[in-house]
Amino acid sequence: MLKLIKRSEEYFEGYREYCQELYDHGVTFFRPMNPDYMDDGWFARTKSIYDQKETEEATGQARSIHYWAVDDDRFIGEFQLRLDFTDKVMNDIGSVGYAVCVSEWGKGYGSEILRQGIEIARSYGMEKLLFTVNEENVRSIHVIEKLGAKLEDKVTVYNETEGQHVLLRYWVSLDESSASGMAEKMVLSDISICYVTEKYQAEFEQILQEYLPGSELETVKRKAENYPETCLVALKEEKMVGIAFGWPREAALPRKEYCLDGIAVRYEYWGKGIGSELLKAFEEGMLKYGYDMLSVGSAEGLAEKFYLKNGFVPKCFKTYADGQIVVRKEFPSLEAYEKYVRTEEGFVVFEKWVKKNRPCRRLVCDPERREG
Known about the structure:
By secondary structure, the protein is an alpha+beta fold. Helices cover 33% and strands 31% of the residues. The protein starts with a strand and ends in an 8-residue tail after the last strand.
């Protein structure tokens, strides 16, 4: 899992290889240290210089904090945060500098570095960040715009590594509400929602067993074949980060009812809106099957807060007695649900009338599963 750490001698060799990669590929948009100058004693020799940059503003230079991005034992890239809006920051390098090893491009690391970097900037009390980027650096522009950054202007500038070029300047606000929204937007922009197909079966089963161990695997597999629109996975850069599945309730009821049998998101992606996006796609699917009443049973905890947040209404509390499911308490109002004190194990039944939602743009349909 990617994390940003302060510069560490443990990862110096990885940093040196990263610098060499950028030089070998002629990358000029972000120029690190020249690897020719980095002998084995370089880290120790320069440590005091980098420490001083964090606390003292040199002539014309902003205070800067340097982080390295690592994933387990691999060096991935770096992140630089400049704390002052000097002329150099405003008209050339911006508040943030970041880069990823060339061999790690296209894996979502740039977005994750910036997501964590934004939180670091907020911890230093910064209220806004200025991003500057060469208009030819399409990859970085894409990452920055996923933040919701606002383009202020374009200016023609010159520096030694890039020569004369057009510089795009973006501002990003770091107030608490917008920062939270940006982090969620960055994650969601990389999310695709797909049907459970053979390609994803093994990973689907892994999440099912880890997060929803009470589910019957064979039943889920059989139902997924019959109701593919409501057996879904959420993917981030081809990694499965969440699942949702359900089907029509088969018991004799006075009305047609659909059941959300299970929904789960990997722990490290909690609080980023992925569960809500899975739920929207699930609801779109059940509407296609002709159902508009959705129910789910949930034990006490975060899941219940999730359902309340997404428009569900608590209807009753049920327990198990002598092999039967028994209604212990009905909830005529939300207040009755909130005041009820549970004295035995059981679950709350939540219901929701599903109206026609906007289509979930991230739903990727497997062509082999489409009708027609």
